[in-house]
């Protein structure tokens, strides 16, 4: 599938890399902060960071998902504030990344820092059917932790 990407900043492709897969086995593309100056996310705080790009997914059969970069999340507590960002197929605005700092120290995002990962995946839009009963399973209605530790 072909992904159309529009640079919204003249920095894309020069100071800030255009989207690309870093290796043949990469599932997602790193996205970079498209900011003119450093942005400090205080401990316990949040910030919205622009990426300088917009995308056009080819159909409702695809969605782009914005995930955390594992190093930022594990080492510094920096991750998307909404856990996973969803870029719908009909959205044409700039991809913004809301980041949350769950760490105990302020964190500084520098211009062009890698801040998130962008993954394109297929979507199935379910045909919703309201029913009076659901089929039985071994687990049934068991909730959190019902299948073990």
Shape: globular
Helix content: under 10%
Low-confidence stretches: none
Largest β-sheet summary: 4 strands, antiparallel
Determine the strand fraction and express it as a percent band.
25-35%
Oligomer: single chain
In N-to-C order, the SSE pattern is: EEEEEEHEEEEE
Q: What is the name of the CATH class?
A: Mainly Beta
Radius of gyration of CA atoms, rounded to a whole number:
19 Å
Mean pLDDT across all amino acids: 95
What is the distance, rounded to the nearest whole angstrom, between the alpha carbons of the first and last residues?
A: 39 Å
CATH architecture heading: Distorted Sandwich
Total E-strand runs? 11
Strand order in the largest sheet: 2-11-6-8
Helix-strand makeup class? mainly beta
Number of helical segments with 4 or more residues: 1
CATH topology: Deoxyuridine 5'-Triphosphate Nucleotidohydrolase, Chain A
CATH superfamily: Deoxyuridine triphosphatase (dUTPase)
Short description:
The protein has 149 residues and is mostly beta strands. It contains 1 helix and 11 strands, in the order E-E-E-E-E-E-H-E-E-E-E-E. It has a single domain, classed as Deoxyuridine triphosphatase (dUTPase) (Deoxyuridine 5'-Triphosphate Nucleotidohydrolase, Chain A, Distorted Sandwich).
Indicate the topology.
Layout: E1 4-7, E2 29-32, E3 39-41, E4 46-50, E5 53-56, E6 62-67, H1 70-76, E7 78-80, E8 85-87, E9 96-101, E10 107-109, E11 114-122
Antiparallel strand pairs: 1-5, 2-11, 3-10, 4-9, 6-8, 6-11, 7-9
């Amino acid at each position: 599938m072909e992904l159309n990407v529009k640079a919204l900043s003249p920095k894309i492709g020069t100071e800030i890399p255009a989207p690309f897969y870093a290796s043949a086995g990469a599932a997602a593309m790193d996205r970079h902060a498209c900011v003119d100056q450093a942005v400090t996310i205080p401990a316990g705080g949040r910030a919205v960071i622009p990426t300088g790009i917009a995308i056009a997914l080819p159909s409702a059969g695809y969605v782009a998902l914005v995930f955390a970069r594992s190093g930022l999340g594990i080492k510094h507590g920096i991750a998307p504030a909404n856990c996973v960002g969803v870029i719908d197929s009909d959205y044409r605005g700039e991809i913004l990344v809301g980041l949350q700092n769950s760490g105990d120290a302020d964190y500084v995002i520098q211009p062009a820092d890698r801040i998130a990962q962008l993954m394109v995946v297929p979507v199935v839009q379910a045909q919703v059917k309201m029913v009076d009963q659901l089929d039985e399973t071994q687990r049934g209605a068991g909730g959190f932790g019902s299948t073990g530790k």
